[in-house]
């Protein structure tokens, strides 16, 4: 089944305990579509970049089968820029700088060829744009998933509250779940957030895995304990891309299949953090992905005697 992703395509400048990068390619939609490309061949992107965005990166996306017809290039503008610095434990980071640039007045045009997509991933971007994309779909997709972050909660909470009732799955991290609900307990937070609209909620907990909530059902997926985490940037988006890519490829949105999808998403995220930026996501093989999924299976399975 086909997937449509909207979100940032960006330049990032990162600092982790392992090093510093100048401007490298990042952005939520970059990570999502790259991760999803390992699952679905109908992988459509809507985003905006400036004239400073390298055509070689667009070629890489295209070589992964990503449809870039909906990627607008504003020759006169500059690409969205984000800069972040990680703390020693790498679970927390500070945003140093955000320059919306061409994303500031992004009009998300959906090409006709994208209409009818069954799976819609509203990746991290302004909630008003996320809603506009949904409004512009001629038919409502079978599954709509939304990812957001504290930045938008700080400056656009009413817009976020307006789009939440329209989505099926929300992914946020633990800190954002607490911020959105005003509750510290993630279980209580989940109940409050699900009342705002999304019937399914995924709370990402970085190196401590992810929780999947639906009604009164809960599933927990661990994160793989890696010897070295080089750069966590994009892990959440890569997770989302793996999750929705897997759902789209199997076309099964049952809770049981979401459990499998969350493991595939976690496996993809575990690759992402091994190198800076999206480098590791560009050259994966199906064999590597399947092997890593098996590591997850053995990590969390046991028998009751
Ligand atoms: P993640 O580490 O999965 O939360 O995502 C990191 C990516 O999100 C980076 O590549 C950034 O370019 C992108 N990003 C950071 N802030 C924003 C924002 N306010 N809106 C959209 N994308 C953002």
Automatic annotation (TrEMBL):
<dbReference type="GO" id="GO:0016301">
    <property type="term" value="F:kinase activity"/>
</dbReference>
<keyword id="KW-0808">Transferase</keyword>
<feature type="domain" description="Carbohydrate kinase PfkB">
    <location>
        <begin position="21"/>
        <end position="278"/>
    </location>
</feature>
<dbReference type="Pfam" id="PF00294">
    <property type="entry name" value="PfkB"/>
</dbReference>
<keyword id="KW-0418">Kinase</keyword>
<dbReference type="GO" id="GO:0005829">
    <property type="term" value="C:cytosol"/>
</dbReference>
<dbReference type="InterPro" id="IPR002173">
    <property type="entry name" value="Carboh/pur_kinase_PfkB_CS"/>
</dbReference>
<dbReference type="InterPro" id="IPR011611">
    <property type="entry name" value="PfkB_dom"/>
</dbReference>
<dbReference type="InterPro" id="IPR029056">
    <property type="entry name" value="Ribokinase-like"/>
</dbReference>
<protein>
    <submittedName>
        <fullName>Sugar kinase</fullName>
    </submittedName>
</protein>
């Amino acid at each position: 089944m086909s997937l449509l992703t909207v979100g940032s395509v960006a330049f990032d400048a990162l600092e982790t305990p392992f090093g510093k990068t100048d401007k490298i390619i990042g952005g939520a939609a970059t990570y999502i579509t790259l991760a999803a490309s390992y699952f679905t061949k109908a992988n459509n992107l809507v985003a905006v970049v400036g004239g400073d965005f390298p055509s070689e990166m667009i070629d890489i996306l295209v070589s992964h089968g990503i449809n870039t017809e909906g990627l607008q290039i504003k020759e006169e503008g500059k690409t969205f820029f984000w800069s972040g610095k990680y703390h020693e434990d790498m679970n927390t980071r500070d945003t140093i700088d955000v320059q919306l640039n061409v994303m500031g007045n992004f009009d998300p045009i959906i090409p006709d060829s994208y209409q009818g997509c069954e799976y819609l991933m509203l990746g991290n971007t302004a909630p008003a744009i996320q809603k506009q994309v949904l409004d512009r779909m001629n038919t409502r997709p079978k599954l709509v998933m939304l990812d957001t972050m504290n930045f938008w909660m700080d400056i656009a909470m009413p817009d976020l509250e307006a789009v939440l009732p329209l989505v099926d799955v929300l992914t946020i991290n633990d800190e954002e779940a607490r911020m959105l609900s005003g509750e510290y307990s993630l279980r209580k937070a989940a109940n409050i957030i699900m009342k705002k609209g999304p019937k399914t909620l995924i709370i990402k907990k970085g190196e401590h895995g992810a929780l999947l909530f639906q009604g009164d059902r809960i599933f927990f997926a661990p994160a793989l304990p890696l010897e070295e985490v080089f750069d966590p940037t994009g892990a959440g988006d890569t997770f989302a891309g793996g999750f929705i890519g897997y759902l789209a490829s199997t076309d099964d949105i049952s809770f049981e299949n979401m459990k499998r999808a969350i493991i595939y998403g976690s496996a993809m995220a575990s690759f992402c953090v091994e190198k800076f930026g999206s480098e590791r996501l560009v050259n994966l093989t199906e064999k590597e992905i399947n092997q890593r999924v098996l590591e997850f299976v053995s990590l969390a399975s046991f028998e009751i005697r």
